[in-house]
Amino acid sequence: MNDWQRKSPLDWETYVNKMVKVAAIEKHEYEGWVLTVDPVSASIVLATFLENEEVSISVVLGHAVQEVEILKEGDDEMKQRLSCIFAPEESKAYSP
Amino acid sequence: ASPRFQALLGGQMTAQAVRANLRQRYLRGLGAARGRPTRFYLRAGVQVDAVFGAADVDAVAFQVDALRTPLGVQAAALLRYTDVLAYTFLLE
């Protein structure tokens, strides 16, 4: 188990809705907004907004995570945007 | 946690509630990945493309369909968690 996997859910939660840079083993690096951290596998789910309204989701598995650096805090608009990504259809904000 | 549960705790989210919230988001993410073309980054710089199927509860393996390998396309396959470093897919 690495240091990242040993963290508690309260620690992982501090990364949610923040832009981070994840350094993984074998010199892989990933950047994106943290949607969640799976408390079972410690995997980090990152979202990156592309042009044409597409969202790229990257999941870095907990065992491969070496370091997570916070680059930017998310504002309320970003939090709202992130919370909608995986929300079930019926709970999406109503816009007539 | 429901508003009622939070009120009961006096606005204090317990570690358990935080954990449940993180897990729920992760499971919704797995649901969103299902059926999407996904690129898996494996050890030693190997990358493979497949259609995401499912993940098991104990974080042991991913089930994928149409796994593209140098020997051809496997209709269904399991990828071990320990062999996968990361995976990415697109939501439109």
Characterization of this structure:
- The complex is a heterodimer of chains A (96) and B (92).
- Chain A contains 3 helices and 5 strands; from the N terminus they run ααβββββα.
- The longest helix of chain A is centred in the C-terminal third of the chain and has 10 residues, at 76-85.
- With 96 residues, chain A is of the alpha+beta class.
- A 5-stranded antiparallel beta sheet of chain A has the order 4-3-2-1-5.
- Chain A is globular, with a radius of gyration of 14 Å.
- Chain A is 20% helix and 39% strand.
- Chain A has helices at residues 3-6, 9-13, 76-85; strands at 18-24, 29-37, 44-49, 55-60, 65-73.
- Chain B contains 2 helices and 5 strands, in the order H-H-E-E-E-E-E.
- In chain B, strands 4-3-2-1-5 form a 5-stranded antiparallel beta sheet.
- At the A-B interface, helix 2, strand 2 and strand 4 of A face helix 2 and strand 5 of B.
Q: What topology, given as strand order, has the largest sheet of chain A?
A: 4-3-2-1-5
CATH topology of chain A: SH3 type barrels
CATH topology of the largest domain in chain B: SH3 type barrels
Alpha-beta classification of chain B: alpha+beta
Low-confidence runs of chain A: none
Helix percentage of chain B: 25-40%
